[in-house]
Each structure stands twice: as structure tokens, then as C-alpha cells.
Write a structure and sequence with these properties.
By secondary structure, this protein is mainly alpha-helical. It contains 12 helices and no strands. Helix 3 packs parallel to helix 7, helix 5 packs antiparallel against helix 9 and helix 8 runs antiparallel to helix 12. It binds fe (ii) ion (2 copies).
């Protein structure tokens, strides 16, 4: 599939910035909605290159880590190898489902981030974890043996099933964003990133830490974007309830790879985010009344 589509002619794909009227071809209509442009500006500032991070010191340190620490990090990093591969593939139907050129463009930028994350975690799998195989697919297969089963179920079963429902028109962006942005990114991945950043605080593996730091910054705007969309789309109560319905599963997904103190943060964090969505929707209703 081509990287650029008809709806994105009004943007610069290198930076994510919206072009000025004098920069776009004659006849191109610039979208009028404002807020998705905030995210495209933010993305332009967050660009990073997953191939430029030196993982040499990390590969050396890896073999000298205590066994229990290496086992815990293996589960987390193999989990991210699986998760970011899955999200880089299954975000595709979300853009067309938005039926709004600016939101579709921001979804495109998000998918580009996810591909970058997938590239980075594949490098970690190859160069640090030294997973067997010459090709990314081989390492993906090897990561499936090492990642927590809860992660594989969420990212390789539930997410593709949701993407297929969206593609077939049986589910909308509300349901998709509830699973993707609120549950997978907002709960599962953010907890995994926090576990990695906490574990790597001692700078023993500076390259992995740097990459996860960039991933964390990207994921923050993805979640913010999902929240913003849900507020605007004003989903029915049962869609919002389904987010909390997934919270226990999300909290358990990493198994014992997640320290208890991080696991315990997941459900209260989900509740806080949901409260933001509900409050903003109520405010919009009051303003409209
Ligand atoms: Fe990601
Ligand atoms: Fe993401």
C-alpha cells in the first residue's frame, strides 16, 4: 500500500505539519478542524531514528546481568517485540474508519511511530537478546516463545479481531480506540514502558533505555490523541464501560514481568483517564444545552 493517500495531500509527510494554502496544489482543500493539527505539530518535534541508537554497550552488558534481571527484561522486551509489530500492522483500518481527513492523517502519523517502535524492538531482539534467525519474522517467532502469554493474546488475537471488525464496518472508531488507545497503549504498554524505564534507570543498558524513552514520549501523544477522539466522538456508556471491563486483563497481561507496584497503578490510572473523558463529554453536553 502506498504511504501517501488522497486525504494527506495537505500535509508534509516528513514532518507531519500541515502545509500553508500557498504550498498545496491548486484545488486542494485544507481541512478546517484545528485540534488534530496540534498532534501533527507535536509529532514533528518528536522524530527519532531507531537505527541510530548504539546498542553495542547494551549487548555487552546483557550477558553480565544477573539471571533474574535478564529473565524479567527478556519477557518485557520480547513482549514489546510482539506488541509493536502487531500495532504497526493493525492500525491500518483505523484511518479510513475516521471518515475525517485530519484524524486519518494523525492515525497515519501514529502508525509511522509504531513502525519505528517495531524496528527498534527488532534491533533489540537481534543485537541484545540475540534471538535466533536471520529475518525479522524469525525473531518474531522466537519472541512468541518468550513473551508473556497475556501479551500475545491481547496483541495477536484481540487486536487483529478488532481491526477486522472495523475493516468490515461492524465496529467503529469508538470501539477501536477504546481497545487500542485506552487499553493497549494506555494500560498495557504504558505499564511495560514504566517497568523498563525503572529497571534501566542505572544506565547499564543506555541504548535500550534511550529507545524506550523515545517510545514512551510517542505513546504519550498516542494516548492523548485517543482520549481527545473519544471525547469528540461521545461514545455510548457501554463502550466506556468496556474500557474498565478490560482493566483486569490489561493489568495481568505482563504476568510476573511487572513489579507489583507498577501493576497496582494500572487500574487507578485507567479510572482517572476515563473520568477525564466522562467529565469532558458532560461539559460538552452542558455547553450544547
Ligand atoms: Fe508503539
Ligand atoms: Fe502507540
Amino acid at each position: 500500500m502506498a504511504e501517501r493517500q488522497a486525504w494527506d495531500r495537505a500535509f508534509d509527510p516528513a514532518t507531519g505539519l500541515r502545509l500553508r494554502p500557498d504550498q498545496v496544489p491548486a484545488g486542494t482543500v485544507l481541512p478546517s478542524d484545528r485540534w488534530p493539527n496540534f498532534f501533527s505539530k507535536l509529532v514533528a518535534k518528536l522524530q527519532w531514528n531507531p537505527d541510530a541508537i548504539d546498542l553495542g554497550p547494551d549487548a555487552k552488558a546483557w550477558t553480565e546481568l544477573p539471571d533474574d534481571r535478564r529473565e524479567r527484561l527478556t519477557k518485557l522486551l520480547a513482549g514489546f517485540r510482539i506488541a509493536d509489530n502487531a500495532v504497526s500492522l493493525h492500525l491500518e483500518p483505523f484511518g479510513p474508519a475516521a471518515n475525517n481527513s485530519l484524524i486519518a492523517w494523525v492515525m497515519f502519523l501514529q502508525r509511522r511511530d509504531e513502525k519505528r517502535h517495531a524496528t527498534f524492538f527488532d534491533r533489540v531482539a537481534a543485537e541484545v537478546l540475540k534471538l535466533p534467525g536471520e529475518a525479522p519474522e524469525d525473531r518474531l517467532e522466537a519472541a512468541r516463545e518468550l513473551a508473556p502469554p497475556g501479551i500475545i493474546k491481547l496483541f495477536e488475537e484481540e487486536l487483529p479481531a478488532m481491526a477486522a471488525e472495523i475493516e468490515a464496518g461492524r465496529a467503529g472508531l469508538n470501539e477501536g480506540m477504546s481497545l487500542y488507545h485506552m487499553t493497549l497503549e494506555g494500560m498495557v504498554l504504558s505499564a511495560g514502558q514504566r517497568a523498563l524505564l525503572t529497571d534501566l534507570e542505572d544506565e547499564v543498558m543506555p541504548g535500550v533505555r534511550k529507545g524506550v524513552y523515545h517510545v514512551e514520549l510517542d505513546e504519550r501523544w498516542h494516548i492523548g490523541f485517543g482520549l481527545r477522539c473519544l471525547i469528540d466522538y461521545n461514545p455510548p456508556r457501554e463502550v466506556l464501560d468496556s474500557i474498565m471491563g478490560h482493566a483486569e486483563e490489561a493489568a495481568d497481561a505482563w504476568g510476573d514481568a511487572l513489579p507489583d507496584e507498577i501493576r497496582d497503578l494500572i487500574i487507578p490510572m485507567a479510572r482517572r483517564r476515563l473520568a477525564i473523558v466522562t467529565k469532558q463529554i458532560e461539559r460538552a453536553h452542558q455547553e450544547a444545552a
